Structures
1.
Amino acid sequence: MFITVYEGIIRHELPFTEGETVLTVMQNGGIESITASCGGKGACKKCSVYIKSDDFTGEALSCVTEAREGMSVEIESETRFSFAHRKNAALLGIIPQECVDRSEKLGNTALAGAISAALSEKARNELSRLQKIVSAVDLSTHSSFSTEFMDAMTFE
Ligand code: FES
C-alpha cells in the first residue's frame, strides 16, 4: 500500500502498513520538511498537511491521521516554501547539493535570537563575537547573479 506525498516540487510514493499515521509514513520515507514539535501527540499543530482521499479532502494533522491506500498528501505551503526544504533548495540551486545533508532546518530564528539577546549576556557576547567573523554577501549586486541563478534552476 502506498500514499503519495507532494513535498514542494518533489513527489514521493511512500509505502505504509495498516495503522500507520501519515506522519510516521513521511518520517520513515525520509521527508524532513514536516515538523512534529510535540512528537506526534496532536498538541503542536505543526504537522498539518493537506489531504485528499476517497472520504476526506482538507487540512489534517498528519500525526493523528491514518494513512490509506491512494491518499494524496501535500505538505503545507508555509513549510514547503521555507528554506527548510533542503532538497528543493538544492534542486533550485539555492544551496549546493553537497550541503543538503550538512545543513539543518532552523526556521525563523530572528525572534528567538532577539529574545536571547534581550535576556542573556552570554547570548549578547556570542552575537558580538559572530558579528566580527561573519560577513554578508549580497549576491543581487553581482553582475552575473541573475544569469547564474536562472541557469542553475532546474524543474522536473
Ligand atoms: S506532531 Fe504535533 S500536532 Fe502533530
2.
Amino acid sequence: MSTAGTTPVSYNDEFVDPTSAQKYEDSVYAKTSHSSLLWDIEKTQLDELLARYVPAGGHHLDFACGTGRVAGHVVSEQRPVTAVDISSAMVAIGRSVRPGPNYLTGDILDDEFFATLKDLGPFDSLSAFRFILNADRDIVQPILGRLAQLLTPQGIAIINNHGDTRSMKAAPHYLAKFSGKKNDASETAVGNYLTPAQALGLFDNAGFEVVDTRGTGVVSGRIMDTIGYDKLRDLEARAATTPLAKLGTNTMYALRPVRGLNH
Ligand SMILES: C[S@@+](CC[C@H](N)C(=O)[O-])C[C@H]1O[C@@H](n2cnc3c(N)ncnc32)[C@H](O)[C@@H]1O
C-alpha cells in the first residue's frame, strides 16, 4: 500500500512487483487473518448465489483475480474458470498455488485483450472481489461496463464492496468526509470506503441491476485479539444469516445485465 508522503501508486500498478504480490498472498490472506475469517463466510455466500442463479456447467470469469483466491474456490470440473489480472506477478502465484483456472494477464480496457475475452465468452457468471473499492475511480466505471458486456443476458456478476459505510466504518468515513482529510496517499478524500449509493451508482451506470445481496463483517476485527479467531468466526457466521448482515463491512452484490443495454 502507498504511504502518506509518497507519490500515490496507481492501483493498476500496486500489485505488479513480485514482493507486493507475495505480501498480499502471505499477509492479507494468512490463515488466521481477519480477511481470511470473513472470506471463510463469503465462500459460503458466493456458493449460495452461484447455486441459486447460475446453471451448473456455466463458464465463470474471475476479474482482478489476484493470486486466485476466488477463482481457485469457484473452479471445478462443472464450472470452468477464466481468471484475469493486470499483474503477471499475482497471476504467477495463482498459477502455482491454485492451479485449475485458466489464468490470463491483461488489461480489460485494452481493445485487443477485451476482444480475446469476448471470444472466450460470453460468460454465465463472473466475480470481482476487492476491486471496486480500491481501484482508480476513473477506470472502475469503464471496467464494469465492459464486464457487463462479457456476460450472457441471463448471466450473473458477483461483485463485492469491502468498505461498506453502513457498517462500523461509518464513523471514520464521515469523519474523513467532513474533515476533508485523506487517511492515506492512495485513498480518495472520503477515506477507504464506498457508500451503498456509490456502489449502486457504479452498477447502474454500467448496465447492471441488483438481484440479491449478502453481507458480513458486522463485528470489529479488533476483538479477535480478545475472543480468538474461532469464536469471532462463529459470531460472524451467525450474524450473516440475520438482518444484521446488512451492517457488515463487506457487501456482496449479485447483479444481472439489464437487457438491451449492453446486448
Ligand atoms: C486486492 S487484489 C484482489 C485480488 C482478488 N480478487 C482477491 O479478492 O483476493 C486487487 C487486484 O486487482 C488487480 N488490478 C488492479 N487494477 C487492475 C486492472 N485495471 N485490471 C485488472 N486487474 C487489476 C491487481 O493487480 C490485484 O491483483
